Amino acid sequence: MKIAMLARNPDLYSHRRLKEAAETAGHELEIINTLRCYMNIASRRPEIYYNGEKLTGFDAVIPRIGASITFYGLAVLRQFEMMGVYPLNESVAIGRSRDKLRSTQLLARDGIGLPVTTFAHDPKMTEEVLRTAGGAPVVIKLLEGTQGIGVVLADTERSAISVIEAFRGANVNILVQEFIKEAGGTDIRALVVGGKVIAAMKRTGAEGEFRSNLHRGGSAASIKISPEERSTAIRAAKSMGLNVCGVDMLRSNHGPVVMEVNSSPGLEGVEKATGIDVAGKIIAFLAKNAQVGKTKTKGRG
Questions:
Q1: What distance in Å separates the CA atoms of residue 122 and residue 102, rounded to the nearest whole number?
Q2: What is the pTM of this model?
Q3: Residue 142's closest CA among 68, 193, 86, 251?
Q4: Class of 2-89 per CATH?
Q5: Where in the chain is the domain with CATH 3.30.1490.20?
Q6: Among 67, 88, 107, 153, whose Cα sits 20 to 30 Å from the Cα of 95?
Q7: 271: left (phi over 0), alpha (psi -120 to 50) or beta
């Protein structure tokens, strides 16, 4: 099987591991810099060019699209889909997961546990938004952002109002969510591959940090999750339409609540914490499922 991986940095742990796992399984994997692709959008003859040559002969594509290049990355991935190349995650599903408002609406529609979440356009509604979210402390999130960037904890009502008004004054869209105090600065990252949780870790934030992201100095350890947490992670992945994702959950007093569904989860933390060959399982899923033209959307949507 010939696999394309859309990734800008071939030296990242996750990208090296996926290439290693693919080659160990006897496949060929080529890392393609997403931003160096250009497309010929011709009627019934979609083409992608890279370094002056037309890309052909690929059976599958692994999109590892950074949040900062989501728009262009999804355009390239849609072109692969229209060429009949099987994507590990489809463009529509990645687009859903990258939009915090859209993803939260979809999770809520499907009855998946969430922190109380509010969204409004008018800054005059700030006090009502805070009241709906249960009052301070609250977590304020930019609609687009990963690795804890664009996430603020407002401890008091006055600070919450100041932050919300500052963001809205700059015409930046935000979500306001209840703060799950009982989580104690820890969360759970469950790796879902093909509708199954294959690995899970507990992430704990650095001292004085409410965000548990490993990129922000957090630590990780293997954890045994409950059947309810396992079910929540699987249902969240299904809501987004993702074959592979990391589902971030908090343990609240009313059960697991989903904070985010990540369509390009990092592999280093979970592999080192659990000892599980996550990259190998992803490649095995791809090998089992990749078929020409099997993409549901074929680049639509």
A1: 19
A2: 0.86
A3: 68
A4: alpha beta
A5: 117-179
A6: 153
A7: alpha
